[in-house]
Design brief:
By secondary structure, this protein is α/β, with parallel strands linked by helices. Helices cover 40% and strands 21% of the residues. It has six helices and six strands. Strands 1, 2, 3, 4, 5 and 6 form a six-stranded mixed beta sheet that branches. The chain is globular and about 40 Å long. Bound molecules: flavin mononucleotide. The site of flavin mononucleotide (FMN) has 22 residues, from α1, α2, β3 and β5.
């Protein structure tokens, strides 16, 4: 199974999970880059506003064509209780290329559930989903959880 893990990460938490999933799947990895500056307090405030209004952004050109993969695993941080703007954009932009999807998210607290919205954005029911808290990534709890997630993807 040829797999691509596509993710956005502002501060490295989702990136860590994405790298682990990609290693376990033996697939390729795509970091989604936004052309909009998201760092600092102003960046945070704008990110909150953009996510809340379900706005799209302009992404940098991707390296991997999602159409050539059997499955695309998409990872997002939670912003303002929903999916991040760059991942909303990636999902909307490439939905026609996805054969199968699996979804994961990281959050600072209880976060939110972005999966129903992501499913309707890409028109595909995910074969697996995974929700993690930032604390669970920092403590190493994610190691076991990502293994379970990848097992579900492979079955
Ligand atoms: C703009 C913004 C809004 C956020 N909103 C929420 C939220 O509503 N609920 C929550 O649990 N965490 C929220 N967070 C925390 C992130 O989801 C969490 O720290 C995530 O793991 C960050 O992933 P990253 O390091 O890959 O960017 C927010 C973070 C940012 C930057």
């Amino acid at each position: 199974m040829k797999a691509l893990v596509a993710y956005y990460s502002r501060t490295g938490t989702t990136k860590k999970v994405a790298e682990r999933i990609s290693t376990l799947l033996g697939g390729d990895i795509e970091e989604i880059h936004d052309t909009k500056k998201r760092s600092g307090m102003i960046g945070w405030l704008k990110a909150c506003r953009d996510a809340g209004s379900k706005k799209l952004t302009t992404l940098e050109t991707v390296k991997n064509d999602p159409a050539i993969y059997d499955i695309v695993v998409i990872g997002t941080p939670i912003w303002n209780r929903t999916l991040s703007t760059p991942v909303r954009t990636y999902t909307s932009q490439y939905k026609g290329s996805f054969k199968k999807v699996a979804l994961f998210r990281t959050a600072g607290g209880t976060g939110g559930n972005p999966f129903d919205e992501m499913e309707s954005l890409c028109g595909k029911k995910p074969v697996a989903t995974l929700s993690l808290r930032r604390r669970g990534v920092e403590s190493g709890y994610y190691v076991e959880k990502t293994e379970e997630f990848v097992t579900k993807i492979k079955t």
